[in-house]
User: What shape does this take?
Amino acid sequence: MKEKKELATRVFRGYAELFWVFFFGSILGFLIEGIWNIILVGEWVDHSATVVGPFCAVYGVGAVAAFLVSHLLPRRAVGLQFLAFAITGGAVEYFTSLFQERTFGSVSWDYSSHTLNLGGRVSAQMAILWGMLGTVFVGLIYPTLKKLLGRMHTQRWHIFCVACSVFMAFNLILSASAIFRWKERKEALPPSSRWESYLDATYPDVRMEYVYSDMHFR
Assistant: This one.
């Protein structure tokens, strides 16, 4: 019994660390995208992946991947770190794009204009950028982040983690439902339930186009 309890504790601690990396990475990605858009075109553009809150989920997934890779490569040569992060970042973009297209029939980015791209989902240019960012992350951010996460293993933080996990699960399900219904409206399909009528009223096309400004259906 004691061993099972210790195992469950270790599993939850590991989950909590990865969840916080995803949670705060999603928020940071949302802010980075918005600020970058201000620099490029002079105005803020919402790049959230959820209908509630400032969460850019692909950055959250990327942050988790970077955190896990950093855990394996803290003392490796810089060249190996760069290559590992370039491959990891490219894989996250490729499979996230593939998942989005297969699940929702939509895309949110297209690198077809980049040299050496793979189906427009990822390109050599972006992979190099991921490699550079990852190398900086493992050298400057990872050690401090690891210590900070270690201090968050208290009962209060664990309760907060469970509450935020439930919120994010609900948020992602609601967001997926709103996107599916948005796609159906584009196909002129009327609501078939009270739930779909609620989605139509609460998340109309105007709101969805603002939240998912870069999303285009195939």
